[in-house]
Input
Amino acid sequence: MIDDRELVERFQRGDESAFDALVRRHSGRAYAIAYGLLGNREDAEEVAQDVFIRVYRALDKFRGDSEFSTWMYRIATNLAKNKYRWNKSRGSKVTDSLQAPIDGTDGNDALYREVSDDRMTPDEALQVAELERRTREEMEKLPDVYREALMLRNVKGLSYEEIAELLGCKIGTVKSRINRAREELRIKLGV
Output
């Protein structure tokens, strides 16, 4: 398998198919980062597309000081943060139809969300839903640096090293931000 560095070099020499390979390899990660920070499928898809538009325009100048994936993650994170701030300043609310297919198609073979959970009583489901709602609200109130580090660790499952490289800070700073975010959430949620 050709590594990212070779694909970048091929693209810089004029091989457009190398860019297509980079998109196939990393588009899922770009979407996952955006979705983790935004929590909205349509916004995450938009950001993921914008990431590769930016990458395409700047790839000729990419020097390889960092890994391609780290560079792309930074672009995805920055664009998602910009979209988050834009949504927040315009009062955008996340909406999701229970009738919307998971894969976004209208065909008969589309998968749909399951609304009920037979393992929980209605009271338990209500408590879980309330806790999730309160957690989302409190997460939005966290300082951006805390929320971002916590999302990358808990939602995206990135290592402390990957987060430090992505955010351009030390591992100790990442750990501190995540611990502070968790502690603030525990206090605010009373858990």
Notes: The helical segments are 4-12, 16-38, 41-58, 68-89, 122-141, 144-155, 160-167, 171-189.
